[in-house]
Structures are given as structure tokens and as C-alpha cells.
Amino acid sequence: MRRVLPLVFAALGLIMTGIAAAADSTAVPGITKDTILIGVPEPFSGPLSTFGAAGYGIEAYYNYINAQGGIHGREIKVVFGDAACDPARGVAVTKRLIYQENVFLINGISCSAVGLALRPVIAATNVPFVIGTASNQHISAPVVHNIFQAVQTAHDFGAEMANFALSKPGAKRIAIVEHSNEWAKGYADTVVEILKKHGLKPVADVRLERGATDATAQVLRLKEIKPDFIISILYGPESAVFIKAANKFGLDVPMIGALGADYLETQNRVGGPADMKNFYMVHQYRGLLNTPDLAKFQGIIAKYIQKGQKITDFTFYGPGSAVVVAHVLQEIGPNPTREKFNDAMEKVKDFNTGILAGKMTFSPQDHQGVHTVYVVGYDKAGDRAVFESWGKKANLD
To answer: Are residues 269 and 191 in the same domain?
Structure first.
């Protein structure tokens, strides 16, 4: 009997060890011995499906990480969800990713309306939510322990739009054309705030709704008001409609657009460079695409993006958030948990993504990581350039 008991206990020990090992591999959702599951909900269908390119950019960067050996020997696997830039659908898709696909974290979201709808859903969990492109500042503020905006916010963009307009000598009469939605409001509130600090208020606030195919009335009203500068807070399709109408009716006024469009895609919709002579756009990157400034990421995306996917400005937008996700996953070691990830994100400081303008910093008091914004447009020589103020090119060194 004395000989049997040690054998029994030894056998039980082996069984318990096996059970514990099995439990360890499944205790953390989205983490197995070999993989890390990351959910990427983006608009892959609908009128704003061009934003879905950001999701493919995120996936391309994770494919690059996998080619380097992954994260502590684990391969990152992306699980896509089509949010279609629709709040209800975005919530349903993200819940599926969390509760059915059991992803470790959510990385992405291009549409602010979806991000705002997801805020209370994510806040009720410990699932890390690293926002890739959606800019409304109220998605991540007030601070929620597991929601991080790894991109510039509408507040940052709105401030740069107002300051850029005011940096033009003699510009006092500033007009706004915008959509009637929360995304546009996030920009416009900041614009009005900055103008007020300078003793100004918009000379006009004109609405051009989503889906509009004619901006004649808006352009003619603005032409009558004679602004010095126009701040355009529109998505891509409507931005092109507005620029075309402005050119047609001789509204020869400089304007700066929000990040609701791809600059070159807008140019293609409008016609060509000559048609964009008055149009500038806030710029989230540390340099121009298709230049040596972003050569590393151009190579990564070209090599690792899904075959058949078109590469646009937005393809480069999502990877900035993926860079910090991969960095933090590496930092927290081979036994990741959601709690460890959230805690480590709050310790990110002066982190250079290599693609977004400026550096990324989070803290327990601030979950909005990037604040530097530039402006892209054509210079006097007819070359596309990056500016920090009117007529002054940004120092990108």
C-alpha cells in the first residue's frame, strides 16, 4: 500500500499539471500557445468602404511582425469584421469578435460614429480597444481604462485647421462647411473655440449633408459672404462635390479639409492637381507617402498586404496603431493578459511609430496618444508638400 500511494499521487500530479497547462493556454481569450487573435472591425462595405483600407494596412503590419518571428513565438492572426461605418452594425460585429471569435483585443475602427457607439460596450469589459483611425475625441475621453486612441483626435485636427487658416496673412473671415453629424461636430467645436480665442467667430456655418451630389447652393452662399478662408469638414465624396462646385462658380478661396478623405483620391475625383490649387488637408503622417520619409512602411505594406487590395493613403493610416500594439505585446512578455496590456499601454511614452506625425504618449490621465498634425497641399511650384503653417513647410527631420 505504501508503494501504491506515491504512484497514485505522482499520477494525480501529472494529471493536474496537464490540466493546468491546458487551462493556461485557454484562460486568456484570444491567446493560445501559437497565436494571438486580434479583431479588426472596419467599413469593408458601404459608401465609406474606402476607409476599410486602414484595416488591410493593420493586417499587413501584423503579417510583417509574423515574418520576423511573431510575438514571443506567437503568430498574430487578424479576424476582420465589416462595420460598414454603421453604429448598430459596428456594435454587433465587434460583439461577435469579442464573444464568439474570442479575440484578445480590438484594433481599428475608422468611423467615429461607430467608435462612440462602442465606447459603453467596450468600457463594460476589460478588452483592450486600440483605435486605429476614428478621430472623435469623445471616444477616449473621459478616460476609460481599456480604450486608447492611437491616432490624432478631431480636436487636434480641428485646432490645426483653424490655426492654419489664421496663419494666412489677413485671414479674418473664416467660414465653415460641414456635415450634420458627431464626426463633423468634433472638428467644428474646436475650430469655433480657436477662433473665439482670437476674437473671431465663423462668418458662416454651411451644411452639406452626407450623400449630397450638388453643392451649388452652398458655394453661391459662400461666394456672396466672401470669406478669406473656408474650413471644410466633409467626407471624401462630398468634399469632391464641394471643390468641383467651388471651381465651377469661381469661389477662389483657400480651403482646408478634414481627414474624412484621402487627398489623392479626392484629387482623382475632382480632376487633377490644377483643380486642387486652393485645397489643403490635415495630414496625420510624418511625411508624404511615396517618398523616402515613409519608405519602410511602403515596403512593408507592398509586401505583406492581401493580394488584390488597392493601396491608398488610408492603407497607411491603421498601421500606426498596430505598431504600438505589437510593441506593447512584446513588452508585457510571454504570458499576456488583457490587464497587463491595458496597464502597459498607459506607460507608453515618446514612442515613435515611424509613420504617424510626432510621438505617442499615454498616461492614466490621458488615453489620446498623438497630437502632432501637419497639412498637405500644393506649393507655389506645383509640388505636393507638407506644411506646418501657411507658406511654411514642416521640418520632417
So the answer is: yes
